[in-house]
Every structure is written in C-alpha cells, then in structure tokens.
C-alpha cells in the first residue's frame, strides 16, 4: 500500500494492487466490539524507525497519535512475575541497582553480568541472539532477559535468530566500544532516530486499522483488486509479465509485498535462483488471544504494559499485553483488556490447536498468573499461521543473494519477510521500491 501510494503520485502509470483476501491491511487489523478496541495483530509502531510515523503524518493522522500510558513490564520467571526496571529494558545493565532488583538472578549471574566489560570483543560476524548475549552477559541473562525481549517478539528461537539482521545496533556497539555497558542510550534495531521524537512506541487512538483505512482512501489512482488469486506468473518474449489466476493481468514491473514462500512459487520459472533462496526463509505460526474482564476481577489490579515469558517457562503464552493499561481508550475504565501471544518457532505449534483450545489455555493462564477467578466477558482469537518470518543467522547474506539474483529483473520484494520485520520497516521498503522504480522510469525516458 505504501509503494502504491508513492507510485500513484506520478500520474502516468497504471497501478494494480492485487490482494488475495477480502481486505487490505494484512496483519494490521483492529476489531471494534462495544467499547473495546482490540488489535488482532500489531498494536503500535516503533518511533525511532521513522517511516511509519512519517507516513501517518503525511496522511494527517497526527491528531490520532497516542503514546503508551504504562511504561514498565514484567518477566514471568520461576512461576512469578518480576517487574523489570526501566534501566534494563534496553538490555544494557548500566545501573547496578537495576540488576539487584531482579530477584531471579543469582549472585553468580549478577557477577557475570557486571564483568561484561572484561569479555573480549567478538569478531562482528553474524551470530544468534542467544549466542551474542550469552557471550557478553552469561547464559542466565541471555535466557531470562535477552531471549524473551528480542526473540519472543518474533515468535522465534533465540538460538536461530540473527543478531545482524534483527539487532545490528548491538553488534555495532560491541565493535565500537568493545562492550555494551558503557552506552548511555538504548539501542534500536536499525535506522536513524526520528528527530522530533524520543525513542518509543505509538499507536492510533482508534487502532492501527485507521492507518489502513485512510491509506486505502488515498489510493484513488490505484486499481485495487480484492479476492484475487494469482496462480502463475510468466514472462513473455516482449518481457511483459503475464499473471494468470482468478483474473489475468499484464505488468511491466512487479512488487511482491507477500511472504517469501509465496514469492518463491511465483519466481520458479522467472528466476529459479531467487525462488530457491526465497524458499529458505522460514515462518512460525502465532496466535493472539484477547480477553476482557471487569477490572475488579484482577485481585492485584492491572499495572504497566504486561509481561514476557522466557521460552523455558512452563506456561502456554510467550507474552501478554495489558491493552487497557498500556493504551488510553482501549476499554471502559472499569474493564481490563488482556492480549496474550501464543506459539513460537521450536515451541508450541498453534496450528495444531483449535480456537477453543487456544482460548482455554489463555484463560487458564490468566487464572494462574493473574489470579482471576471469573470467566471473561469478551474473547477474541486471531490466528497468524506461518506468518512470522524467522530471520535465521545469515539472513542478510540470503537477502543480498536474492536481490542479486533479481537485479536484472523489474521485480521488487518488500515487507516483513525481507529487510526488517516491523511496520516501519515494511513501509520503508515499500516507499524505497517506489522511489527506485520512479527513478528508473525517469532515467529510461
Ligand atoms: C501478532 C503480531 C503482532 C505484531 N506486532 C507488531 C507491532 O506491534 N509493531 C510492528 O511494527 N509490527 C508488529 N508485527 C509485525 C507486523 O505486523 C508485520 O511485519 C507487518 O504487518 C507485515 O506486513 P507485510 O505487508 O509484510 O505483510 P502482511 O501484513 O502479511 O500483508 C501481506 C498481504 O498480502 C496478501 N497476500 C499474501 N499472499 C498473496 C498472494 N499470493 N497474492 C495476493 N495477495 C497475497 C495477504 O492477504 C496480506 O494482505 C506483529 C505481527 C504479528 C503477527
């Protein structure tokens, strides 16, 4: 959508947006139920990667911006919730008081963390999230802090996910300073900070669906085809792409804003090499289960943003957001809205459970961890099957190879499977593709 938005500004081109489902927006979907605003997929955008905030501003959505009310979160370790001090959220334990407050760290683990400055610098090569943080701070820190914070949000396995592709800033800091602990500012996973905003997250008052709706309204020069299935794409002798399926199209230029596995199928004949490499990107399935209760049902109330769960804890969720305390206006003041994430690579496979099973597991978690005894007054299950790209070690090299294989073809890959997994990354990739296409067209004219 962001690529189409930029391409249509140059009014000379025919742009068709082909969508297989019955709506645009993909994983961005907000449910409205009475006074509840429930995000089925993402709930916010990272502001220090500016592309999302910039697009929202261009679309006149600034008055809709809301920042989180709560700032803290907890970790569920050893069957208990532990509040994580603000100073630890960046995973750089600069204040030793922050470490002391984490009751689940033994004195040996704390000592190991404090000795990070003595650990020799790594080679700067790609390695897994677990390997990087184990090397720098020891295995307890890696398992209980780095893994849930950095791998859990990708529904990923920290032993597999790539530091270079997902969190290059930490590698850069280690290479520059020889250690992490001296840095005063928390790193972000990529691009330059948005000058007008402090690093953090924001969302839209009426939910992220608003971004999809407003953007769709703006695509007035784009031919949007919903419910359209493309089976094959071939290239004819004149170099024109022939798309055949539930409808047929011709195109000079293609932007694939779809998972790598689907793009791989389409590219089988046009670029077998790119197709083979794209097929290497793996996906995990995840589900979001949202439940609402009267606030009075939570014996200790709901505070802050929620909690994350390390992979080796024996509960069925990977994390939980208290939407009604994290964001303003998500639920009436007397309601608690709780969003739980389930499924991860190498862990629970949500595809093998029914919605009712997942809901049952989520409700049991609320009962066990938050000590709620009544039944929820609202429930919602959103499933994201094979939808979370797993950037394995070597992902950036894999992407270089794919782009090299496609370099002679007017084919562009954008989206969460490729060069960054969050909404800002997807928007940036879409707009960069549009920019490169318009530049090429201009040069050729
Ligand atoms: C539960 C969850 C929570 C998340 N939380 C956050 C968050 O808080 N912040 C954040 O920035 N990111 C978050 N993300 C990640 C973010 O949602 C995704 O990276 C982003 O939405 C992916 O956008 P995309 O355009 O690459 O793919 P998608 O959103 O998956 O869109 C792809 C579109 O292509 C369509 N499609 C697929 N195949 C075909 C085909 N062959 N032909 C035609 N159409 C096709 C699909 O129907 C879909 O509409 C979250 C993801 C999930 C699942």
Essential attributes:
FAD/NAD(P)-binding domain, protoporphyrinogen ix oxidase, domain 3, binds flavin-adenine dinucleotide, 3 domains, alpha+beta, 19 strands, three-stranded antiparallel sheet, 15 helices, seven-stranded mixed sheet, 445 residues, Polyamine Oxidase, Chain A, domain 2
Please, could you describe this protein's structure?
This protein is α+β, with helices and mostly antiparallel strands. It folds into three domains: about 1-70 and about 200-280 and about 390-445, FAD/NAD(P)-binding domain; about 85-175, protoporphyrinogen ix oxidase, domain 3 (Orthogonal Bundle), CATH 1.10.3110.10; about 280-390, Alpha-Beta Complex (Polyamine Oxidase, Chain A, domain 2). The protein is about 30% helix and about 20% strand. It has 15 helices and 19 strands. The chain has helices at about 1-5, 50-60, 95-100, 105-115, 130-135, 140-150, 165, 170-175, 210-220, 260-265, 270-280, 325, 355-370, 395-405, 425-445, and strands at about 15-20, 30-35, 35-40, 45, 65, 75, 80-85, 200-205, 220-225, 230-235, 240-245, 250, 255, 280-295, 305-310, 320, 335-340, 380-390, 410-415. Strands 7-6-15-16-17-14-18 form a seven-stranded mixed beta sheet. A three-stranded antiparallel beta sheet has the order 4-8-5, with no helix packed on it. Strand 10 (about 230-235) and strand 11 form a beta hairpin. Helix 2 crosses helix 15 (about 425-445) and helix 5 (about 130-135) runs antiparallel to helix 6. About 40% of the residues are buried. The model is unreliable at about 185-200 (pLDDT under 50).
